[in-house]
């Protein structure tokens, strides 16, 4: 079976209006830049997006928000995006804010075939409203269900033709979790290599989870907070 | 004299013990890393997937793929490890983090904390804060005692949407170190030259005062 | 003439499709790997933590750290990946394995399977079989039609403790290929020279026979 | 904090009679040989052992069974061990057999602070007896609780002073799961290196989960089924 896509346009060709997408990344770190650009270009609408953040105004998922392609956003932190805040407060955008660990674990639950998980995050807060609470060993937990997504779109450092992926440093974040969690997974990689070039012992996402893979181009890798120190004497 | 934010961080650093794994939130908590006592080794966790967070990179060596939970460019250290977000919050939920320091907009006398939302005004999201406060055994809040408009941030009960219930163990403000006990706020230390009366006036709940209240020593 | 175990494996290999991820159990199922049709690429999963299981190592190159779920020394292939047992069963539970082939002691006409325990006699444990049969969409049982003492292993209902309920989709025995339908065992193919009557006699449940029943072609 | 133990005797010194131990490995692959030998030497008794298998008669956990140190065994497959079967049938040994994926996931649940998980494994079988069954999306699942163990004893390929571990090939198996799951984790490694020698991007078990580490000696690494092929012409 050939998992190779020619480019981002090719990789996303089966995504249609109204679907649910998971997008990897934390802030702008490890986001699938090529696929986001292709989604913007294609103008797919009414999307539900699951991603830890919503990009910034002019990059990442922010680009899709500008084009009003997103109907609903499921995220944990969106503080970097004024257009997002505007659409939310005006009611144009439906938003579900959930704890970051809950977001991660609901992805993992989907990937691991677990229909729901228990987490203490959000007990006693508005996150718990309408949710089942259960006590184990004297401590309260919320029942949170596994995500259901049509596509996961992830960004990796290296990948091979079998779909095996490795990520670089903290660009890993939600990517391997989302890669496991959707019906179909699209991976864009900085470097596509032949099978056998990646050490089987250090694969972060086994190829079984990835259906489409391609080598991306022109990564901008924008930094949100460029913090540095002076060279020590 | 009230502490500045660096001194708040410095006081909190006194709570560190050798071998601690520590999660520092954004803002004043981040500054705690600058005051780790000599001889004490702590490992900083960044919940986006790193244990062993190092200092900011030397200029020119920033790597977009290596950031902390505040989206700042950082470095690793010998002994660091990288992992995905599920494992990151796994270690948080299972109680492996010995100390969590975070900021707050309000803290109540039973240890509730509010720091993620002002209805109709500010919508940023809770990020990892709800997971952290629901899981950590040892939570210290670092904040100013009052809001910019002078309102007490220490309350009988929080008015803002909660981040977590009954979770804060200690508060370090510009004026005082306060422990959350079963009976409410217990004043442990006061900033040099700040009177108990002033602290009580700026706290919208009764303070428990037992014996002499020493000044914060830095 | 009844099929031998190699021929059973050969017949099952016809079920493989290009791109399939396949889990092969211990015994006859393992042999299926020897008959993968030319032009069909399948990836073998071993539930102890390997995708892309290769052949046995060349003599002298055995590595104790690289075994399959049957504890046999094996090799990796280009494109292989190693993972822990939670991820291994994660991919099994989430339905990423396209085909599971395993042996059985009994199969019932509603697709129940028993293959892990004979009360008071054999206590080996279920290993990964219960997870596999509870999760896989496509389960084929490879087994002899009757026990060494001549008892049918295809039954109206299983007498042994179950491994899973309503899960088996197809059975390939030395005598026949049988599909499990909502109405019971449906005879699809028979071994060359074996009569429908003989298969029915050796099956302790009614067979559904529709039209001509072709011989198994290998 | 110093995590270094001198040797296996030192590393296990706080384990006492009646405790619950997790032992990594699949069959004889990736088992903590040094610590098992030390447990046998010390003669600790009435142990509850959680491990996928129970070793063979004269190696692995089989050595502890011979000395009748194990009161209860929680495992998924024990077919390789005649002494085990004898003790089980005679009633000397308490045994709980559970599905392999359930075993793995109950370890993960403990490590990830999830009090319980849902799995379809065992529905409709005797494994389900006395357990809560819950239906999600038309499919039945068992509620299985996280393990509680006093010690996890794992074997890794390489480790550093901070407790970071990497495993080799399929000797990984249950080791990283158990390493996360107990109150205290002891890791024996084939090679102990200085901090900084392991690439942070390819750590299997982050050091936070490991309290004691030492370099083992004299690994036998017995092979259960030595299967080979002839050299191709």
Keywords:
heterotetramer; A: 233 residues; alpha/beta; Glutaconate Coenzyme A-transferase; 8-stranded mixed sheet; 3-stranded antiparallel sheet; B: 218 residues; 9-stranded mixed sheet; 3-stranded mixed sheet; 5 helices; 14 strands; globular
Describe what this molecule looks like in 3D.
The complex is a heterotetramer, with two copies of chain A (233 residues) and two copies of chain B (218 residues). Chain A has 233 residues and is of the alpha/beta class. Chain A has one domain (8-117, 145-215): Glutaconate Coenzyme A-transferase, CATH 3.40.1080.10. In chain A, 20% of the residues lie in helices and 25% in strands. Chain A is built from six helices and eleven strands. Chain A has helices at 8-11, 33-42, 61-66, 82-89, 100-111, 175-181; strands at residues 20-23, 47-50, 70-75, 94-97, 116-119, 133-136, 139-145, 151-160, 165-166, 184-193, 212-215. In chain A, the strands form two sheets. In chain A, strands 1, 2, 3, 4, 8, 9, 10 and 11 form an eight-stranded mixed sheet that branches. Chain A has a three-stranded antiparallel sheet with strand order 5-7-6, covered by helices on one side. In chain A, α4 links the parallel β3 and β4. The longest helix of chain A has 12 residues, at 100-111. Chain A is globular. Chain B has 218 residues and is α/β, with parallel strands linked by helices. Chain B has one domain (5-208): 3-Layer(aba) Sandwich (Glutaconate Coenzyme A-transferase). Chain B has helices spanning 5-13, 28-31, 85-93, 129-135, 196-201; strands spanning 21-24, 43-46, 50-53, 76-82, 99-102, 106-108, 113-114, 117-118, 122-123, 139-142, 154-155, 170-172, 176-181, 184-190. In chain B, the strands form three sheets. Chain B has a nine-stranded mixed sheet, with helices on both faces. In chain B, strands 7-6-11 form a three-stranded mixed sheet, with no helix packed on it. In chain B, strands 8-9 form a two-stranded antiparallel ribbon. The longest helix of chain B is centred in the N-terminal third of the chain and has 9 residues, at 5-13. The radius of gyration of chain B is 17 Å and the shape is globular. Chain B starts with a helix and ends in a 17-residue tail after the last helix. The chains are: A alpha/beta (233), B alpha/beta (218). At the A-B interface, α4, α5 and α6 of A face α3 and α4 of B.
């Amino acid at each position: 079976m050939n998992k190779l896509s020619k480019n981002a346009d090719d990789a996303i060709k089966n995504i249609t209006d109204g679907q649910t997408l998971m997008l990897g990344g934390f802030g702008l770190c490890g986001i699938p830049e090529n696929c986001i650009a292709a989604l913007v270009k294609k103008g797919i609408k009414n999307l539900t997006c699951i991603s830890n953040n919503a990009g910034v105004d002019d990059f990442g998922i922010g680009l899709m928000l500008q084009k009003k392609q997103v109907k609903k956003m499921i995220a944990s932190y969106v503080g970097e995006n004024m257009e997002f805040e505007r659409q939310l407060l005006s009611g144009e955008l439906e938003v579900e804010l959930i704890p970051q660990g809950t977001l991660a674990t609901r992805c993992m639950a989907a990937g691991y075939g677990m229909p729901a998980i228990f987490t203490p995050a959000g007990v006693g807060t508005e996150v718990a409203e309408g949710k089942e609470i259960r006590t184990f060993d004297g401590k309260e937990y919320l029942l949170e269900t596994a995500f259901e997504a049509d596509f996961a779109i992830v960004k990796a450092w290296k990948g091979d033709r079998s779909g095996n992926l490795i990520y670089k440093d903290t660009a890993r974040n939600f990517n391997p979790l989302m890669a496991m969690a959707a019906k179909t997974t699209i991976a864009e990689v900085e470097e596509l290599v032949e099978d056998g070039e990646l050490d089987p012992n250090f694969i972060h996402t086994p190829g079984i989870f990835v259906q489409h893979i391609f080598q991306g181009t022109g990564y901008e890798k924008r930094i949100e907070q460029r913090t540095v120190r002076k060279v020590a004497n | 004299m009230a502490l500045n934010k660096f001194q708040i961080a410095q006081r909190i650093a006194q709570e560190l013990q050798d071998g601690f794994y520590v999660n520092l939130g954004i803002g004043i908590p981040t500054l705690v890393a600058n005051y780790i006592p000599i001889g004490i080794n702590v490992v900083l966790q960044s919940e986006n997937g790193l244990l062993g967070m190092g200092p900011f990179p030397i200029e020119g060596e920033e790597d977009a793929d290596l950031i902390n939970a505040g989206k700042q460019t950082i470095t690793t250290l010998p002994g660091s490890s990288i992992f995905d977000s599920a494992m990151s919050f796994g270690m948080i939920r299972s109680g492996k983090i010995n100390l969590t320091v975070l900021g707050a907009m309000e803290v109540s006398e039973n240890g509730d904390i509010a720091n993620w939302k002002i209805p109709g005004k500010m919508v940023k999201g809770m990020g990892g804060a709800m997971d952290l406060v629901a899981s950590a055994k040892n939570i210290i809040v670092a904040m100013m005692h009052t809001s910019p408009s002078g309102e007490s941030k220490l309350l009988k009960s929080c008015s803002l949407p909660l981040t977590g219930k009954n979770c804060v163990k200690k508060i370090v403000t510009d004026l005082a170190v306060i422990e959350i006990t079963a009976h409410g706020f217990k004043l442990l230390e006061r900033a040099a030259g700040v009177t108990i009366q002033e602290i009580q006036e700026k706290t919208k709940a009764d303070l428990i005062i037992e014996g002499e209240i020493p000044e914060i020593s830095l």
